Amino acid sequence: MTAAKEPSVSVLLDPNWAAGSLVEDVRRGLSQHPRTLPPKWLYDNRGSELFDEITRLPEYYPFNAEHAILTEHADEIVTASGATTLVELGSGTSEKTRLLLDAFVSSGQLTRFAPVDVSEQTLRDAADQIAHRYPGLEVAAVVGDFTLHLAHLPKGGRRMVAFLGGTIGNLYLEERRAFLGALADLLEPGDSLLLGTDLVKSADRLIAAYNDGAGVTDEFIRNSLVVLNRELGADFDPGAFSYIPFWDPHMERMDMRLRSEAPQRVTISGADMVLDLSVGEEIRVEISTKFRVSKIASELEQAGFGVTRVWTDPDNEFALTLATKP
Ligand code: SAH
Ligand code: TRP
């Protein structure tokens, strides 16, 4: 038996990243209306654990739907991509990605896997597990921010960049444009993007997926305040807020908010901010945009990709699109 190679881990986030970038995000976001927090701050160690629990909730259909597509079509995806390097953005535990890796390994074409995530411990654990499961595969993990560090992704060979879980829907339209445009500019002709997007469906089903009966999503969203308390010495009382997820039919997105249940003053010393919140005032913690297949294609084409193929699950809940740089 060949011994597994240890994964390499490059850390692109500097040690002050949390402090520095968080302060700017918090200053900007919390002075807007509605007040907003950027989603990458949801994924500290506890947040990543809670997200992992979310993926196992019966109400959270996106995980199962994307899993079903990959189970059915991983071989075709691998063949269509012709990739020798798989890069994964926002990889988390890379659980579903194993379906792709299995198909890549049986095709014999893959030499390198490069998962990228801001959540360092989750990434390290996933990279170790994958290196042991696929001996012979070079695992080159990157602790980085996909809105800042695309230029540092591994080069050479034919690459497929997987961006799964519907995470692109957590970006605003302008951010999606900037992200997809930057990615298209960086890729070489023949490289591709495998993009997972959740599709528009009934409000009931959507709301249930973001408001589970066990309260895991509520804790996940509320954990953002715990992150601010720890990283910026803020004094949020997470218990003084209630979790309000709603479907915005005009923007076709879920909007996840925390509502202040009492008038309160919050001091965020690390950001030099004092926040006076009135009763009922809301902080938006996350959006999750839902797509139609035509909208996915037009955003990809505007960014400079060509749509090679779209796969959906049997219930048409989720789509995986393979887009290629011409
Ligand atoms: N791809 C996995 C996880 C999705 S959850 C799945 O499909 O189940 C979103 C992941 O993206 C988390 O692991 C989070 O830490 C990561 N993430 C969020 N914002 C990020 C950013 N700006 N840069 C890099 N990773 C980010
Ligand atoms: N990318 C996931 C999604 O949009 C992130 C997520 C899952 C999430 N559950 C959540 C974000 C609950 C906020 C609240 O589905």
TrEMBL record:
<dbReference type="InterPro" id="IPR017804">
    <property type="entry name" value="MeTrfase_EgtD-like"/>
</dbReference>
<dbReference type="InterPro" id="IPR019257">
    <property type="entry name" value="MeTrfase_dom"/>
</dbReference>
<feature type="domain" description="Histidine-specific methyltransferase SAM-dependent">
    <location>
        <begin position="24"/>
        <end position="324"/>
    </location>
</feature>
<dbReference type="InterPro" id="IPR051128">
    <property type="entry name" value="EgtD_Methyltrsf_superfamily"/>
</dbReference>
<dbReference type="GO" id="GO:0052706">
    <property type="term" value="F:L-histidine N(alpha)-methyltransferase activity"/>
</dbReference>
<protein>
    <submittedName>
        <fullName>L-histidine N(Alpha)-methyltransferase</fullName>
        <ecNumber>2.1.1.44</ecNumber>
    </submittedName>
</protein>
<dbReference type="GO" id="GO:0032259">
    <property type="term" value="P:methylation"/>
</dbReference>
<dbReference type="Pfam" id="PF10017">
    <property type="entry name" value="Methyltransf_33"/>
</dbReference>
<dbReference type="InterPro" id="IPR029063">
    <property type="entry name" value="SAM-dependent_MTases_sf"/>
</dbReference>
<keyword id="KW-0489">Methyltransferase</keyword>
<keyword id="KW-0808">Transferase</keyword>
<dbReference type="InterPro" id="IPR035094">
    <property type="entry name" value="EgtD"/>
</dbReference>
